[in-house]
Design a protein that fits this description.
- It is a single chain.
- The protein is built from 4 helices and 10 strands; from the N terminus they run H-E-E-H-E-E-E-E-E-E-E-E-H-H.
- It has 2 domains: 1-37; 41-209, OB fold (Dihydrolipoamide Acetyltransferase, E2P).
- It has helices at 2-36, 66-72, 192-196, 199-209; strands spanning 37-40, 52-55, 75-96, 102-121, 130-135, 137-138, 145-148, 159-164, 173-174, 180-182.
- By secondary structure, the protein is of the alpha+beta class.
Length: 229
């Protein structure tokens, strides 16, 4: 009887220990996840008034040739920026300041809500807005903007030609040189006809008709694709 009781206690202790390990693993994962990313709302800051720190980038195609740029992108579309939804900082790592203090700094990614007005390449849904992520944005201290060379941050209320690259998770980031091209005439009006018939739109339509396929050109599908229901 004592042997059976001892065995039963051992089993119970083993189950409790296993549950404790699972709980510790979950808590530990959450703590690590919290440190992996950080979100800040800088939507009230005029990014155009801040100094820009540029990051170098290497491309496998000629970024000055719209025909190659169009082919490399998974989606090319005209969109109006409805809102700036904050900046997410990822790949957070400890950085030692000149005063010896340690600060955790991450790479900025700016989130936007965009209404697709016209598809030039690919078929993004137009029945409701999509989420756009710009690789770059206001630094964590709010004192500067980090962007790739020849890139810019979209502004709320303005319209752009966006060249987007779908990721494995279906998201739709926009980054790099000329990845969002400002539409000048009528870009900030409610006249969508003027926007989709703008010279900028016409240039990318022409580039689409004469696209050049560079090496290493692979295509992916976004979760915002009209065919992804």
């Amino acid at each position: 009887m004592k042997a059976m009781k001892s065995k039963k206690n051992t089993i119970i202790m083993g189950i409790c220990l296993g549950m404790l390990l699972v709980i510790c693993a979950i808590v530990g994962h959450r703590l690590i996840s919290d440190q992996d990313s950080l979100t800040k709302d800088f939507s009230q800051i005029d990014a155009s008034s801040l100094p820009v720190t540029t990051m170098a980038a290497t491309y496998v195609y000629d970024v000055t040739d719209k025909r190659e740029a169009v082919d490399m992108a998974d989606y090319v579309y005209i969109g109006k920026v409805l809102s700036n939804d904050g900046t997410v900082y990822e790949n957070i790592a400890p950085i030692e300041r000149q005063n010896g203090e340690i600060e955790k700094i991450g790479d900025p990614y700016t989130k936007y809500t965009v209404q697709v007005l016209k598809n030039i390449k690919g078929e993004l849904r137009m029945d409701r807005p999509v989420t756009l992520t710009k690789d770059g944005g206001i630094a964590q201290d709010g004192e500067s903007v980090l962007l790739y060379e020849d890139d810019s941050l979209p502004q709320v209320g303005q319209s752009y030609v966006f060249l987007a690259y779908a990721q494995e998770d279906g998201s739709l980031p926009v980054s790099g040189a000329d990845s969002n091209v400002f539409i000048g005439a009528g870009g900030n009006t409610k006249n969508n006809s003027a926007i989709v018939n703008s010279p900028e739109c016409a240039e990318y339509k022409k580039a689409m008709q004469n696209e050049i396929i560079p090496p290493q050109s692979e295509k992916s599908t976004s979760k915002y694709d009209a065919n992804e229901r």
